[in-house]
């Protein structure tokens, strides 16, 4: 099993930036692709970004492409999501999660969900 702790969320004005971090423990972190998903109130959880095990390949949803950057540090068992040019539509709880398949935007290819971190973007 993998335990995950997300951090770095908060309240930011539109156009601002945040950097989310996700610290993993348990099974070997580098064995997994990593993904970020988000869930806004009243909406389904949606794919944001994914990263291969080595970090050499990335995948982004159209909604965040060009604004968000996913990265990882396998030595620190940590994955990051740099979010720039934030928009009110980015307001959601953000989750990092290990993936058993890359690339994948499908929830069923991910397991061991953490508690998430709240991101709120004001207009």
Structural class by sheet pairing and helices: mainly beta
Helix content percent band:
under 10%
Strand order of the largest sheet: 2-10-9-4-5-6
The portion of residues forming beta strands comes to over 45%
**What is the radius of gyration computed over CA atoms, rounded to a whole number of angstroms?**
13 Å
H and E order = EEEEEEEEEE
Bulk shape? globular
What's the pLDDT, averaged over the residues?
A: 94
Distance between the termini: 39 Å
Query: Sheet bearing the most strands, described?
Result: 6 strands, mixed
Low-confidence stretches are none
Query: What count of helical segments does DSSP give?
Result: 0
Secondary structure tally: strands = 10
Q: Could you explain how this protein is built, in words?
A:
The chain has 123 residues and is mainly β. The protein has strands at residues 2-7, 10-13, 18-26, 33-39, 46-51, 58-60, 68-73, 78-83, 92-99, 117-122. Strands 2-10-9-4-5-6 form a six-stranded mixed sheet, with no helix packed on it. A four-stranded antiparallel sheet has the order 1-3-8-7, with no helix packed on it. It is globular and about 40 Å long.
């Amino acid at each position: 099993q993998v335990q995950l702790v997300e951090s770095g969320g908060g309240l930011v004005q539109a156009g601002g930036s945040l950097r989310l971090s996700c610290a993993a423990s348990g099974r070997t972190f580098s064995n997994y692709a990593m993904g970020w998903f988000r869930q806004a109130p009243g909406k389904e959880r949606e794919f944001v970004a994914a990263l291969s095990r080595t970090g050499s390949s990335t995948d982004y949803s159209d909604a965040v492409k060009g604004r968000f950057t996913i990265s990882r540090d396998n030595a620190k068992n940590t994955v990051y999501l740099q979010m720039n040019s934030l928009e009110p539509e980015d307001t959601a709880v953000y989750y990092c999660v290990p993936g058993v398949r890359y690339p994948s935007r499908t929830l069923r290819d991910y397991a061991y969900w953490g508690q998430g971190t709240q991101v709120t973007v004001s207009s």
